[in-house]
Write a structure and sequence with these properties.
Keywords: Cell membrane, Membrane, Sugar transport, Transmembrane, Transmembrane helix, Transport. By secondary structure, the protein is mostly helical. Helix content is 72%, strand content 0%. The two termini are 46 Å apart.
């Protein structure tokens, strides 16, 4: 069952004309939506070029290197990195659709990955069943860690931004303490601090999608695609998703419609945390096979930027994740090829996110003005027709 936008169904709001309510394809609106990210990229290029000129670095060489086609091996790395970042961005996007800022994905996936690695390393279940147990453990731990912030918000009114930031720090400390306990139980003289390695039967093999390289694409890329589809389906094709979007846009309107806002906040945080729990699994099941001190960090904060780039849409988020992974990979070769510090890529990413946010806001306001003008014209046309009919009858 499909629903109209929350604004159209708000109590006391005007009922749009039928031709408008059907959602006719507006090529101008589509063009504006496409122009927003393109404009943001151009702004990022211009600003970064000005920075390079100010520091005396070779602008042409930098962009020539940044736009160089990745090798086959680099392509696999980009796809794998994008898969991990996609989970992170979808977790953030779930909160955004509810008007919640889950800035704690970093802590949630750390706790989840450690717990999943610890449980999986014990090999309590055989083969595929152990993989299922790892997935469930990661999602439950991520959901419970995010649920703390959700519970504090609905019961004590604590901002999820503050609570999730604090929970990030707590998660880092808790996992470090548990890793120290694991290290104490390992053999003397061992420098490898981490959980037990997953058994061979509990590892997900990679895919040789790009021939000619010694690297494989994470097998969990299919899980990322499934998560993206389920996210789209739940948000756009279910009553729960409609209530979630309605609450995020207008809490007062949602309450008037009978939505339990506190329940929606808590469930949204649990869902966001469950997806966040999957962030570390491609690395755990497809590359590292344990959780140690060298496990990749900072993935949660990249997810925030990518969710903004993708405008919380699963396809847009996928493109944003690929772009983000591409820039990070190009940053690796930039100092070697041009003697320019790879921190310039951070400038590109930061300016790009800022420009996208501004561009989307400008487009949103312009589209709203266009819609209002369209509704006004159609209402005026409807009012004019009865007047003309009455005059003709007279």
């Amino acid at each position: 069952m499909s629903h109209a936008s929350p604004e159209a169904e708000a109590p006391g709001g005007p009922t749009p004309p039928k031709s408008y309510a059907r959602g006719r394809v507006d090529l101008r609106a589509i063009g504006l939506a496409v122009a927003a990210p393109v404009l943001a990229l151009l702004v990022a290029i211009v600003v970064t070029s000005l920075v390079l000129l100010a520091t005396g670095d070779p602008v042409g060489e930098v962009w020539r290197q940044m736009l160089t086609q990745p090798s086959a091996s680099q392509t696999v790395i980009i796809i794998n990195s994008a898969t991990v970042l996609y989970f992170s961005a979808i977790a953030v996007a779930i909160g955004f659709r509810m008007n919640l800022f889950n800035i704690g994905v970093d802590g949630q996936y750390r706790v989840a990955a450690f717990a999943a690695a610890a449980v999986g390393g014990e090999a309590w279940l055989p083969g595929p069943l152990n993989i299922v147990l790892i997935l469930i453990t990661a999602m439950m731990c991520g959901a419970l860690w995010a649920g703390i912030a959700g519970w504090l918000k609905v019961t004590r009114g604590v901002s999820e931004v503050i609570s999730t930031i604090m929970l990030n720090a707590i998660a880092t400390g808790v996992v470090a303490w548990l890793l120290a306990r694991v290290a104490a139980e390992q053999e003397a003289g061992s420098n490898d601090i981490g959980t037990k390695d997953l058994p061979e039967s509990s590892r997900i093999p990679g895919l040789s999608l790009v021939p000619g390289t010694g690297r494989q694409v994470y097998g969990l890329i299919f899980l990322a695609i499934l998560v993206g589809f389920l996210y789209w389906f739940v948000i756009n094709r279910t009553r729960f998703g409609f209530d979630l979007r309605a609450t995020g846009r207008s809490e007062s309107a949602a309450v008037a419609s009978g939505v339990d806002v506190k329940k929606m906040v808590l469930v949204s945080m649990l869902m966001s945390g469950a997806v966040a729990g999957l962030v570390g699994l491609p690395l755990l099941l497809g590359e590292n096979f344990n959780y140690g001190t060298d496990f990749q960090s900072g993935l949660g904060f990249s997810g925030i930027a990518i969710a903004l780039l993708g405008r919380n849409h699963p396809v847009g988020v996928a493109l944003g994740a690929l772009l983000w992974a591409y820039l990070e990979q190009q940053a690796v070769t930039l100092p070697i090829a041009t003697d320019v510090d790879d921190s310039i890529v951070k400038i590109i990413q930061g300016v790009m996110v800022l420009a996208v946010v501004i561009a989307y806001e400008v487009v949103r306001r312009f589209q709203r003005r266009m819609e209002q003008q369209q509704v006004t014209r159609e209402l005026a046309a409807q009012d004019k027709r009865p007047a003309e009919t009455t005059g003709a009858q007279a």
